[in-house]
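Look at one record.

>
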Amino acid sequence: QEKKIFMVQGPYPIIRHLLRARGWVERKLPSVGRQLEQHHPLHYLWPPTEEEEEKEEEQCDEDPNGIHDLMSYLVRDRLPNFIWTNFLEATDHELLQQDHMVNHYARVDAFTTKEGLCLSLQNLPWIEQADPNTFFPRCYRLGTRDEREAFIEDFRLTAARSLLKLALEEAGDRPVRTKQVLNSAKGAGWHRSHVSHPKHSTAQAGSPLYPELVEEALEVCKQHLGVLRHQDIDRGTPSPCRTCIDWDRFLQEYYRVAHEGAGLVLTRQQRKQCQNLLQRLAEQLPQLGMEGKLNVWILKPGAESQGRGIICMTRLEEVLQLARGFTAPSVQVGRWVVQKYVERLLTIFGTKFDIRQWFVVTDWKPLTVWFYQDCYLRFCSWPFSLCHLERARHLCNVSVQKWYKTSPDLDPRVPPDKIWSNKQFQEYLAQLGQADAWHEVLVPGMKAAILNALRSAQDQVGFRKGSFELYGADFLVGEDCQPWLLEINSCPTMRPSSAVTRRLCANVQRDTLRLVLDRKNNPTCSIGAFELIYKE
């Protein structure tokens, strides 16, 4: 009569404990191996594995008198009023018509898959006055011809900008050559063909490449700047990547400079041109600062999670070859996305980390979003390095790092369990003299990124009154403390991997039930660390 029957599917002993403490009765799932009745409106629920059942029972409160089992038996034929599950079949229309609360919405893959988020944020400027390039590293779906071509152009332009950065960096380490010296070098027998075809050159990897390479990069970047400033509308300026430059040769020479130690020679005039051009490009390109100079990109299966299949790469031909000819066991051909790697990121004790940030959507019409004020950091097991692209250095997912032993080169101040709370991070920022960065830069940036992602996908989501959903957003932090959204997870893990996550995961589950259940009957009740950040 009180409509307090619940069902839990998946490893959520905390939810079960908290609901029982509120006087709710569990309608238990059929045991493993028992056939689910196909006509039942809950047939979409997968039975838990024996391992999941054992873990739940170990962590759940004891039932010495068997009262919970007895009550569960009495409601075995009743539909639950509240369902917490780790899986929802979006096509289960019968379920969605029932009058009960479910912890998922349908069709959220529009922003909870890498492919979906990439596509949705491309449409953001048409929906909101917001630029995804200010918070989401640029991303392309390689299975789509137009986007694959756009990625190729982006890779080439990034290589040209990176070459200018490398040239300036090297010019700062030694005297800049004059035109007279360079002309003498040419008179002594140097010719453009010596660097036009490096595989035929007798020069070693560390030998200098002369100014024509920098001149080509300058010309490409000048043309790109004109396009960015819309000068191409009246003048018909072609795409910078459709100029007469031999891009295959240019990229091979860029690889020699960026990855093989070849040097560059600049004239004083070129040095000034590089500085001026990069400064003007920075005014047009929000990601110029974070993109670095090694042109690292990260290739991801479009609909996978937990770091499956993710690879860091630096060569265009290898990215395209991998995306065309290789498919991970569960990845459909062509369902890859490639995203610019954040090269200039903030590290802690020389180690890469990311932030897992929770939020809850309790309504899509009107869109209503609650931000959780506690979160946690996840560290890699090996020291950060852009010269080495192993997963242990670059993927912070707990599900990835658990397979790696801690490197002996890792700073001993990195926590052994590779987890920090946001409070510990704030203390670290204060030690860096950035005490205000958390509340003034990071939190506002994460909130804005989350809201923009939700608004970009709002029309795609299967809206349903009575549902809610807890999400986990992953962010990297740039050198300037700006957060960069990587992805949003529709089923963030609640399995603790450390003392910090044991406490925080329990808290966010407790506060989510306060928000979606207790608040319905008592609007002034405590909702813990949740904060309403948006209601349409």
